[in-house]
Amino acid sequence: MTPETNALIDKLAEQHSxxxxxxxxxxxxxxADAQALLAGLAREAADAVYGKTVFIRGLIEISxxxxxxCLYCGIRRGNADCVRYRLSPExxxxxxxxxxxxxxxxxxxxxxxDGWFTDDILCELIQTIKTRYPDCAVTLSLGERGRxxxxxxxxxxxxxxxxxxxxxxxxxxxxLHPEKMSLAYRMECLSDLKALGYQVxxxxxxxxPHQTMAHIAKDLKFIERFRPDxxxxxxxxxxxxxxxxxxxxxxADLTCFLLSVVRLIHPRLLLPATTALGSVTExxxxxxxxxxxNVIMPNLSPVAVRxxxxxxxxxLSSGPEAAQNLKDLRTCMEKIGYEIVxxxxxxxx
Length: 349
What we know:
The chain is α/β, with parallel strands linked by helices. 43% of the residues lie in helices and 12% in strands.
């Protein structure tokens, strides 16, 4: 590790900010010593706020039907080989019932942009969950919907909304998405969500096609300014039925490095160790936690549909990734010195 890199890490830990040029330098000069130092500081920062705890979210993948044709996504509209499904409200509530019994106090409804899930249907579903389990948080991750829709869902009781920005560079965004989608509208959605009082999550893929270190530096500066409550960072993994099928997967090492960077930018952030990180490398979930993450999202979806929500190749949904194997997940966390807690796990911004 060079003295310059060491100085940048110290500056980030103290000031929670670097310039874009400094972020680029930090990433490009990283080595094993820098990664270890950064991870140690990130864990200290997370532990100072949250202690040796890890929050769990029950992930319910409600539909793999999507109107969009994002070039990297396995459930893109243009993938004729994707076997489509949509959970009924009754099925979703059954997943919530099971999750509550298992100890989950946050439920994440995630899906493609499926027009069947109107505001009326979602509002009724949210209200039912909140009435049945008032001590729980409801998180939505359903793509771009518009301010009026976000407002209705918030009024119905939705607490959080996850909407990855994917990249903070407009030209790069255009290389990952169809023409009708724009970074400007994605950013407008994120601003609307924050203004409406949601706990808001953004995030990006590490190693996505055409990504440069300058793009990542822009992502980090956006996260500095936007101050999200949550941030999802995971490696890009190609899907066999997309235009990016032959692209290499993103680096687990760089992903963990960036988790540590983001933790030092916002020490109070809710930061998941993503399924993608666990999918791309053995022990990825544990590496993510030791790099500064403090959230895990086991899968509560019905077993029969889990292999249909395939955003990328070889996506994990069994073993410790399955909500029903929470005991195994607890053991995994205990081995690295952390405890899973039964808690809504709200942001402490």
